[in-house]
What we know:
globular, binds zinc ion, alpha+beta, eight-stranded mixed beta sheet, 464 residues, 24% helix, Peptidase_M1_dom, Neutral Protease, domain 2, metallopeptidase activity, hydrolase, six-stranded mixed beta sheet, 9 helices, single chain
Amino acid sequence: MTRGPRWGAAVLAVALLAGGCTRDDDGPFHPGAADVGDPYVPGAGNGGYDVGHYALKVRYDPADDRLTGEAVLTVTATRALSRFQLDLAGLTVDRVRVDGAPAKHRRDGAELVITPPRGLPAGQRFAVEVTYGGVPEPLPSAELGDGGFHATGDGAIALGQPESASTWYPVNDHPSDKATYDIEVTVPDGLAALSNGVPKGTGSRGGWTTWRWSEASPMASYLSTLVIGDYRVATGTHGGKPIVTAVAAGLPADGPAAASVARTGEIADFLAGRFGPYPFDAYGGIVVADDRIRYALETQSRPVYGPGFFRGAGPNTDVVAHELAHQWFGDSVSVARWSDLWLNEGFATYAEWLWAEHDGRRTVERAFTDRYAVTDWSKPTVDPGRAAMFGDAVYQRGALAVHALRRAVGDDTFFRILRGWLAERRDGTATTADFVAHAERTAGKPLRPLFDAWLVGASAPALP
Ligand SMILES: [Zn+2]
């Protein structure tokens, strides 16, 4: 994510939802946990199962803001389950089936509690079909980026980090459970319906058009998006893969927004030269015109950019470089828990430095020296607390730590560390400890003291 120019400092009111789950006596089967225990997102995600695939069919009518959906989740029980939960904020559930059989269901706040007719043994794969609908709404934690579903008049934007997906489909809403997706979106003729991955065509019937998208690489739920409305959509290929960019029709056709996303392929190629092959089957970018979206988010294979980034005279390629760098750092290799968000943002910020140097503006050394001089070392990069998860310590101090590693091990080893990390962890999740261990293995020397000093030490570290 990149914070927009109008990002405000936020007063945080984390709703501390009741943690644990109620135990019941159900023989060998037990209820799945109500969340994954990530203190940055109380209530998010669930325990006891792993989702492998989401097949989503949603229909949205901007005339009355109503969404109807059918979600089929392919799930594997990771323990014997008597019941389990999905995250679903708002919306009304009409029907739930588990492996084709009607299942009991009830709502508990933003949780959908499902009790299948029979217990699900550990290791069993099963299909969950949820039919639902209603008027979707944003999530209340707007201070962390206006997450969730926004009606826009001509359409809608579903977007947000760390949570947003549960406002438009039932989901295990935490990056520790990545899954593949097929997404079908039906909207009135004339509107675009954009999402992640490879375009699988459109079809019209009775005044409605269905847009089909497929994301075949595992995706964290917060990286899924839905953008509906009046957009200028450009479709082509880049490096043998489809590239789909879209700019809201309300923005100028030849303005900075269009000029910036038009450089997506070029910037992705530059990053591939540093990080290794682009990790997904499609490229793209979407610029929305809604000022409530005060950030850009690295939604998988197709980042979404708020309009505030493109108010200058020329293109803003730095924000494009940042969101595209996340395709490697954050999307392909995702955080297992939000306290390690610097693994996404430190590297994406560093990628901005690399791009600016390549673009002939400011060297990486200069960026490093300038930032070092103004850094508040009292704020930690790892586990900064939820209120500071999008703060400078995560982004800028994180980038300083990345460059400190480069200075300590040299260019050759540094880029081997990055490429090896991305290749080994592709499509997975990881922690800070995983990265430090990988860097030490690749460099063949201890690096823990360096990372400790640059990531969490309370005073300015000595320059390596
Ligand atoms: Zn970012």
